[in-house]
Description:
The complex is a heterodimer. Chain A has a single domain (2-253), classed as P-loop containing nucleotide triphosphate hydrolases (Rossmann fold, 3-Layer(aba) Sandwich), CATH 3.40.50.300. Chain A is built from ten helices and eleven strands. Chain A has helices at residues 51-58, 88-94, 109-119, 124-137, 141-144, 157-170, 187-200, 213-219, 237-242, 247-253; strands at residues 2-3, 11-22, 25-36, 40-44, 68-76, 79-80, 95-98, 175-179, 205-209, 222-227, 230-236. In chain A, the strands form two sheets. Chain A has a seven-stranded mixed β-sheet, sandwiched between helices. A four-stranded antiparallel β-sheet of chain A has the order 3-2-5-6, covered by helices on one side. In chain A, helix 6 (157-170) packs parallel to helix 7 (187-200). The longest helix of chain A has 14 residues, at 124-137. Chain B is an all-alpha fold. Chain B has a single domain, classed as Up-down Bundle (Methane Monooxygenase Hydroxylase, Chain G, domain 1). In chain B, 80% of the residues lie in helices and 0% in strands. Chain B is built from eight helices and no strands. In chain B, helix 1 (7-39) packs antiparallel against helix 2 and helix 1 runs parallel beside helix 4 (78-105). Chain A binds chain B through residues 213-214, 217, 241-244, 248, 250-251, 253-258, and chain B through 1-6, 9, 75-82, 213.
Amino acid sequence: xxxxxxxxxxxxxxxxxxxxxxxxxxxxxxxxxxxxxxxxxxxxxxxxxxxxxxxxxxxxxxxxxxxxxxxxxxxxxxxxxxxxxxxxxxxxxxxxxxxxxxxxxxxxxxxxxxxxxxxxxxxxxxxxxxxxxxxxxxxxxxxxxxxxxxxxxxxxxxxxxxxxxxxxxxxxxxxxxxxxxxxxxxxxxxxxxxxxxxxxxxxxxxxxxxxxxxxxxxxxxxxxxxxxxxxxxxxxxxxxxxxxxxxxxxxxxxxxxx
Amino acid sequence: xxxxxxxxxxxxxxxxxxxxxxxxxxxxxxxxxxxxxxxxxxxxxxxxxxxxxxxxxxxxxxxxxxxxxxxxxxxxxxxxxxxxxxxxxxxxxxxxxxxxxxxxxxxxxxxxxxxxxxxxxxxxxxxxxxxxxxxxxxxxxxxxxxxxxxxxxxxxxxxxxxxxxxxxxxxxxxxxxxxxxxxxxxxxxxxxxxxxxxxxxxxxxxxxxxxxxxxxxxx
Lengths: 258, 219
């Protein structure tokens, strides 16, 4: 693997020799990576390469899968999240996740965003402010401020996805994980969300899995290329798309296989 | 592991390369004939050569259109992107070589009274420039950065010959003012040859870039 980024100062996420098995099948092989703070890192690779599996290691979503075994370390701000004294609920509060299919709860727009803060015990009087702030940060306040009590499912697909982002932001994570967030959306909604992601990196560290290479090229600062469970190359997006070091990276991004 | 999933795209890339090489062949022909027309003071050949400018414009236009299509519709990346962008530059350099050759082909019509001196060093310059043109294009065809560097290194010989002939012509004009008009045309000729060699260096720089992703100055 090309060691392109070993001198990241203060990486927010450090992965060291991560291996994962689903039963007998090894899905991740010796992954090491450093993700800098306040940046957008894109993970690309063909179907089944392990990029979604990898991202689910960062917030321990793979814990929920039977027969899933992990070796190695994932350090968030220096602390190993697979350590014995880690509070997984607290971990997931700090790591927002947005999925491919928008999944608003079947409740009002307001309640969707307020759900997380309520569960974490936020004062009722503070909720209005938190909901507004989150909806503004997700660039959807203008479209929803006059109908916060309307059902979330009455929104369009693109709006629902932004609502899901607002829901994530409401619990003030430090890191946001996106798993193919725009693959179900039309081009304009996609552009809006890409614009939003690029703005969010001022305050958050973002990791995005995408099978859309042009998207990775447009919005990310760093790109990692996965293939058959291995991290083949990791580096600055400009360098990966301009002059990749590994033959298989070049072949993938030029469409010589997929 | 390699399976060709973008057949049409690869065919378009291939076609673009072939177009550039065709343009290169045309530029070589035009240059060769323009020099022959000057050496032999052959006005018929000169006029035939001048008529080819239209053909060169067509080829350049086709290359440009292909590049825009590829960029807009196929989003080439990495070495493909470097190739596509380089073909634009190489095409522009070839067009300049054609333009300079056109200027050369206009000289026979202005040389009443014949040559003022035998074109020995000028002939050497032209041979080196022709070599550089042919082989910079070969370096492009075979993506050979080493060859590109070797070809570009010959530019120094062209520059040396340029200054030698320049000095010689100035001295001749100082001694015999009746040859000034014809000698001036030769001054232009060696200037055109020197510029053609420079454009070949540019092509070599483009080849090094597209192969290695490094920007170099070989001039």
